[in-house]
Amino acid sequence: MSTVQPQPYAQPPSRKSTLADVAAAAGVSLATASKALNRQPRVSDATRRKVLDAAQELGYITATGTSTAPGERSGSIGVITSDLVGRWSIPILLGAEDELGATSNTVLLNNARGDAQLERNGLEFFASKNVDGILIAGQETNPRPSLRNVVDVPLVYAYAPSEDPDECSVTCDNVQAGRLAVEHLISCGKRRIAIIGGNETFDAATDRLKGTMQALHDAHLEPVGPVRFNEWSEAWGRAATRLLL
């Protein structure tokens, strides 16, 4: 009489290992792990070996299973955004595609949803794809923390600048925007000009007010009624307009 041996319990599949897991296992930073896996310079042979061993043990595999050779371009860039509505991220994405499309580059999009961890995950994902650079598209104009120590990939910040002045940030000149708006109204023959702003804790709101007031002063004018600040929304714009009228 034969007996049936119990089958071992099937463990549920574990989550996919990330670059952060590899870095922690190897005892190095995310940037160093990224350099080692992508065969970039400034990493010792011993450290590179340690990172590669950790990656193999954890089952971490890059997008293609291999790494691009040093100096070789992948022909792609990543765009990370936290703009859920798409008002700022979509024009930035379209502009990047227009500029890079002529050189056969691919633009990859990742939505971090305003979450710092999701943003780091997106950086790791793009690093695993071996992108040539990453564009960080902010949803506001206030300076944001730097990400240069997360991955060793060239970064450019759009709309929201990095707090690190040594990094490349492409931002709006909101002072000039406020000035141009008033100058346009004056050129149309308008003299009674009121100001409705967004949230005054945002640099964009205060900078636009500065430019607006400068232009009014140059025209020997004063704003009609008090300057009204509130949330960035169409509802507030309509409500403030009704109050003004």
Task: Describe it.
It is built from eight helices and five strands; from the N terminus they run αααβαβαβββααα. It is α/β, with parallel strands linked by helices. Strands 2-1-3-4-5 form a five-stranded parallel beta sheet, with helices on both faces. Strand 1, helix 4 and strand 2 form a beta-alpha-beta unit. Helix 2 crosses helix 3. It is elongated and about 70 Å long.
Q: Rg, please?
A: 25 Å
What are the low-pLDDT stretches, counting only 5+ consecutive residues below 50? 1-13, 63-71
Oligomerization state of this entry?
Answer: single chain
How would you classify the helix and strand content by structural class? Answer: alpha/beta
- Please write the string of helix (H) and strand (E) elements: HHHEHEHEEEHHH
> Order of strands side by side in the largest beta sheet?
2-1-3-4-5
Strand share of the residues? 5-15%
Number of strands: 5
Overall, the morphology is elongated
In round numbers, the mean pLDDT is 81
Number of helices: 8
Alpha carbon gap, first and last residue: 95 Å
As a percent range, the share of helical residues equals 25-40%
**Strand count, sense and closure of the main sheet?**
5 strands, parallel
Lay out the secondary structure:
Layout: H1 19-26, H2 30-37, H3 45-58, E1 76-81, H4 89-101, E2 106-111, H5 116-128, E3 133-137, E4 155-158, E5 168-170, H6 174-187, H7 203-218, H8 234-244
Parallel strand pairs: 1-2, 1-3, 3-4, 4-5
Keywords:
single chain, 245 residues, alpha/beta, 5-stranded parallel beta sheet, disordered N terminus
